[in-house]
Specification:
3-stranded antiparallel sheet; elongated; 0% helix; 116 residues; 11 strands; mainly beta
């Protein structure tokens, strides 16, 4: 079992990117706690979709049902070529062995390029 905890590396609650750019929603390891899983979901109009998760054991196991999204070793969510449809609420949940859950929410805004 790995004993780490993750938290957002900044206090950003909203991230704004331009269409076509790469997106990183950062996490970083900050202290030793009994973390068993990191899970990223996307919420849009009461519809929740699993994007990626890391599960502990002897080592991390990675699950990414949507191949556009990747989760890094430190739990950050990464994807390329942001589309307008990617705008919305991204939720990261940390699950601990004592049954507690910590939730962090990020609003992603995807803007079009305005070239005059």
């Amino acid at each position: 079992m790995l004993y780490i905890a993750a938290s957002f590396s900044s206090s950003l609650k909203t991230i704004a990117v331009f269409e076509g750019t790469d997106v990183v929603i950062p996490l970083s390891v900050t202290s030793e706690l009994n973390l068993t899983e990191i899970q990223w979901t996307f919420n849009l109009l009461h519809n929740t979709r699993l994007l990626a998760m890391l599960i502990t054991g002897e080592s991390w196991r990675v699950l990414t049902p949507d191949k556009r999204f990747k989760i890094t070793e430190n739990g950050s969510l990464v994807f390329e070529d942001a589309h307008f449809e990617d705008a919305g609420v991204y939720i990261c949940r940390f699950y601990f062995s004592d049954g507690s859950i910590q939730k962090h929410t990020v609003n992603l805004q995807v803007q079009t390029h305005n070239i005059s």
